[in-house]
Specification:
Blueprint lengths: L4 H8 L1 H20 L1 H6 L1 H8 L4 H7 L8 H10 L2 H24 L2 H5 L5 H33 L6 H28 L3 H21 L7 H5 L2 H5 L1 H7 L3 H24 L5
Helix pairs in contact: 1-9, 2-9, 6-14, 7-9, 7-10, 7-11, 9-10, 9-15, 10-11, 10-14, 10-15
Length: 266
Amino acid sequence: MLNSVFGKTLFDMRRGLIWWSIGLILTNLMIVLIFPSIEESSAALTEYMQNLPPAMIALIGDIANFATMEGYLGLELFSFFLPALTLGFGIAYGGSAIGSEEDSGTLDALLSYPITRRSVLTQKFGAITVFALLVLVASTAGLLLGVVMVDSSINMVNLAAAVLNVGLLTLLFGTLTLALTGVGLNRGAASGISAGLAALTFLMNSLAPLADLPEVVRHITPWYYYDAVEVLQTGPEPLNAAVLLVGIVILLVIGVVGFQRRDIAV
């Protein structure tokens, strides 16, 4: 396993994999365990939320959906909280995959082996993808355990599609960070740009209707195609998932081309 860039990168992330998995399992479990009390007080909660400013309601979503498990998880977890957490490790590992090697001066040693730069970057991307997949599988296990403990049910197809969208969104911004380090930015700058774009595009997608902005503003944000809240309740949207996937591929190609062409300063 350690004889490949992919295996060595994944091995180096093993502690992060364990702690992120445990943290998301427990977080998701606790959120689901709160659902029965939310379900019982949904009428009072709806009345309270209707008095909030329109901007807050736009960010929170349709609070009438709190009465169902799918609606509750969509608004409480998938609308922002879960993707914000997964974007955290996606951006961090996307920035460190190449950036930490360059900062520590080990990148030149790695590239001295008979391996192409394209292979180095794509194997790093593969390790990040597997890391994200394993963490999301673990976090989904926490959700399902909670659903069983509260004696409730959830549409498994819709849940799988929503989790897939979380993974695609995470990989999109993680690949953006990886691509930025590939073309020459240091990992701090690359991570900062990716995190800033994630926050900015989230606000653009959420608040565009309130600001009377053209609908096209939402269509240029990844969050519009992510929309796991809607997916949880109405089912998969293959075209939206495909848009995110195409974005990942484009960013990966940009990163590979930039990494192949630039000088490595170590």
